[in-house]
Amino acid sequence: MEFDFATPIERRHPDRGQWPSQKWHRYDASILPLWVADMDFRSPPEVIEALQARVDHGVFGYGLVSDSLKRTLCEWSAREYDWPIEPEWQLWLPGVVPALHLASLALTEPDEGVLTITPIYPPFLKVAERTGRLAQQAPLGEPGAPGEPWRLDLEALEAAITPETRLLLWCHPHNPTGRVWRHEELAGLAVLVERHDLLVVSDELHCDLLLDEGAMHRPLAAAFPALAARTITLWAPSKTFNLAGLTAACAVIPDVSLRQRFAESTRGLMPDVNVLGLVAAEVAYAQCEPWRRELIEVLRGHRQALAERVSQWPGVSMSVPQSTYLAWLDLRRAEGLAHREGSPQQVLMEQAGVALSDGADFGWPGFVRLNFGTTAAQLEEALKRLDKVLKG
Predict the structure, then answer these.
(1) Which of 107, 176, 219, 231 has its CA 20 to 30 A from that of 8?
(2) Could you tell me what percent of the chain has a pLDDT over 90?
């Protein structure tokens, strides 16, 4: 079966109040938006059909997480990650970002530290501040040469850990660099987590879009069973199947005590998952594997097109992302931006008419994040616009 990933979808509606889109309505119509992690593809047809049937029912009262949804996620985990999980380990929530904040409230005290590793997507950097905890950061290791991968710098990570550190917010695969962490890197991380008695929230939101042939995701808690009792794993169908607006995510927590602490923290602070999100999640995981496989092929082609273009931009470098549809570009030495005032993101928006995510928001000024989860035609138009500035 073939799916349509080529036809552009109109997302700037004449009446912005009808179906406003964060991605497409932040900027005016002269700007091509390649910023927030939101693809420009229609969601799988099976999901759309199931949602239409649920809407036709006409009643949108409080819902429950069905046993069939929990079984479906168990089957997905066993098949895709080789990790047998239990239905009772699952806590379904309206979003991964709220879960990060609730984990901080549930698992730490006000005088304890929440550690993040930068660059990292912006909500990570706000968790400690918003929950009244001690913010701590450690940097990743930069690529040694253009095109080489970013690396987990275990020495820098351990140097950032203090007696106050209690919670590590981990991203696996990594947003924004696209790294799929090697087992050896994760093994080093596991040693530090146990040595310093840390709890971990492992955001694995992009784990179902691994782009390298033969790659298979292994959850942190599955790869290192000793960590399972101290780890909350966060999954969602949102990025994989383009369902972010339906706000359905799952915290997988094997340890009963940790699960109870986290569940208690959500009461009164977070609504239940909406009924349409639950429907979409179950259908996505149960029926939409062919769509996902075709999407990955499309994204591989887009990744190649982007890498070829970046190689033509003097002073610009990119570690080819191993997962998802996000690319992390180093523009600190971009010849086309020399002597231009403003951040790279500002210059490219004003001079090229392309909106990217500003690296400063990820903790690393001078970088931008580019979303290539769009149609080939829209990506090519954006790259042509960027050529005019970045080719020098």
Answers:
(1) 176
(2) 92
Tell me the pTM.
Answer: 0.97
> What is the pLDDT at residue 381?
98
Nearest to 283 by CA among 64, 106, 49: 49
Q: Left if phi > 0, otherwise alpha if psi is -120 to 50, otherwise beta: which for 321?
A: beta
Rounded to an integer, what distance in angstroms lies between the CA atom of residue 316 and that of residue 356? 15
Which residue's entry shows tokens 């009924």?
275
Take residue 364 and report the two structure tokens written for it.
């690393």
Q: Band of the pLDDT at 88, cuts 50, 70, 90?
A: very high
Look-up of token digits 């790279």: 344
pLDDT at 1 over 60: no
